[in-house]
């Protein structure tokens, strides 16, 4: 049986192809794709920063309905509404057994040598699937994955109700980090933005300080509002040496900097700031367990409870047949885009 899949065809090129729709192999589940977001990592591939598959569709911010079960899959039923992690894990290695399955020795792409969420159907490994409440919409379900990324970054910072949190970057991960921090009840928040739509969204999400980097020096602003102390925690979501250095400069002494950006090349950065401030620098790799629950479970609860109105981030919707335009708009933030969704429902 044939289906449509959107596949990279070159730098800044993606097109619809007709491909075979195969039944799921053992351990996998076939999902009827309903809605998929275009992620920053998808754009890295689109621009050629990261590798491209010219054979299989990408896409992992996906929500859909289970339509077939591979051999050995018992925890899902046909008709289940599910959200998809971007990787599978073995469940038996040292890291999986301690809840840090994002560091699994056998971690693999959720749909290895198969099509992801930019196809009509995606075959996904059962270890990376989460059931959703029936009342959740497909749009909400497709936002679970990026919110889980941001939730883990805030959790990694250790921020609590007594702490101030600064977020570098007004894209999807930055905005969700802001929303998660506000939902967690941190003392004060700041977010940097570059575009008008990012500033407007951050205001609705409850940011205390919104700094437009086009006309304001972030370091000077933070020095003024904190009396030179800095923020307790900084979440860096953009990447690049300038943003790394900004993060280590605006964090307070012995504060926490969490790196969740896609760093795709080596950087020349100022490490002396870290030495003198004794700041704690850590990475945040997708999602796993943060405390007693998975980051995906936390994200589902945040959306389902209404604590985070995730759909505020979605600015554009396109059918699968118009995915080339969807990527063009997503890649051009002057279009007003924050999160672009590819819809098949």
In a nutshell, what does this entry contain?
The chain has helices at residues 40-47, 94-97, 138-141, 144-157, 172-184, 196-204, 218-225, 241-250, 272-277, 295-305, 323-331; strands at residues 2-10, 13-20, 28-37, 61-69, 81-84, 87-88, 108-109, 121-125, 129-131, 164-168, 188-193, 209-212, 231-236, 251-259, 280-283, 289-290, 293-294, 314-319, 339-343.
Outline the structure in words.
The chain has 345 residues and is α/β, with parallel strands linked by helices. It folds into 2 domains: 2-142 and 309-343, Quinone Oxidoreductase, Chain A, domain 1 (Alpha-Beta Complex); 147-283, Rossmann fold, CATH 3.40.50.720. The chain contains 11 helices and 19 strands. The strands form 5 sheets. Strands 3, 4, 5, 8, 9, 18 and 19 form a 7-stranded mixed sheet that branches. A 6-stranded parallel sheet has the order 12-11-10-13-14-15, sandwiched between helices. Strand 14 (251-259), helix 9 and strand 15 form a beta-alpha-beta unit. Helix 4 (144-157) crosses helix 5 and helix 4 crosses helix 10. The longest helix has 14 residues, at 144-157. The chain is globular. The chain starts with a strand and ends with a strand.
Rounded to an integer, what's the Rg over CA atoms? 20 Å
Poorly predicted regions: none
Sheet with the most strands, sense and barrel status: 7 strands, mixed
CATH superfamily of the largest domain: Medium-chain alcohol dehydrogenases, catalytic domain
What is CATH's topology name of the largest domain?
A: Quinone Oxidoreductase, Chain A, domain 1
User: Can you write the helix and strand succession as a string?
Assistant: EEEHEEEHEEEHHEHEHEHEHEHEEEHEHE
- Report the principal-axis shape: globular
Mean of pLDDT: 96
Beta-strand level of the residues, as a percent range?
25-35%
Give the count of structural domains. Answer: 2
* CATH C-level name of the largest domain: Alpha Beta
Overall strand count: 19
How many helices in DSSP terms?
Answer: 11
Structural class: alpha/beta
Under the CATH scheme, which architecture of the largest domain would be assigned? Alpha-Beta Complex
For the record, give the distance between the C-alpha atoms at the N and C termini, rounded to a whole number: 20 Å
| Helix percentage | 25-40%
């Amino acid at each position: 049986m044939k289906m449509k899949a959107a596949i990279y065809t070159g730098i800044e090129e993606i097109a619809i192809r007709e491909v075979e729709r195969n039944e799921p192999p053992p351990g996998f589940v076939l999902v009827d794709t309903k809605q998929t977001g275009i992620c920053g990592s998808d754009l890295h591939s689109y621009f050629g920063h990261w590798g491209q598959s010219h054979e299989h569709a990408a896409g992992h911010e996906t929500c859909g309905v289970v339509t077939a079960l591979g051999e050995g899959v018992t925890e899902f039923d046909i008709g289940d509404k599910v959200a998809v992690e971007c990787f599978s894990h073995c469940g038996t290695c040292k890291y999986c057994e301690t809840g840090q399955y994002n560091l699994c020795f056998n971690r693999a792409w959720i749909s290895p040598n198969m099509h992801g969420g930019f196809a009509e159907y995606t075959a996904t490994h059962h270890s990376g699937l989460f059931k959703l409440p029936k009342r959740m919409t497909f749009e909400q379900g497709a936002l679970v994955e990026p919110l889980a990324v941001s939730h883990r970054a805030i959790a990694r910072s250790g921020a609590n109700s007594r702490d101030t949190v600064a977020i570098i970057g007004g894209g999807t991960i930055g905005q969700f980090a802001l929303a998660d921090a506000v939902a967690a009840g941190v003392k004060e928040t700041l977010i940097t933005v570059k575009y008008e739509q990012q500033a407007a969204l951050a205001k609705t999400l409850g940011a205390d300080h919104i700094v437009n980097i086009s006309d304001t020096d972030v370091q000077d602003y933070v020095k003024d509002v904190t009396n030179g102390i800095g923020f307790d925690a900084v979440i860096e979501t953009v990447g690049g040496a300038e943003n790394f250095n900004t993060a280590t400069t605006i964090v307070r002494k012995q504060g926490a900097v969490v790196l969740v950006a896609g760093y795709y090349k080596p950087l020349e950065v100022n490490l002396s700031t870290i030495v003198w401030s004794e700041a704690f620098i850590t990475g945040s790799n997708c999602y796993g367990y943060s405390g007693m629950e998975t980051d995906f479970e936390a994200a589902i609860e945040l959306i389902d409870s209404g604590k985070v109105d995730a759909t505020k981030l979605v600015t554009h919707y396109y059918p699968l047949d118009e995915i080339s335009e969807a990527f063009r708009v997503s890649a051009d933030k002057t279009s007003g885009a924050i999160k672009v969704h590819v819809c098949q429902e």
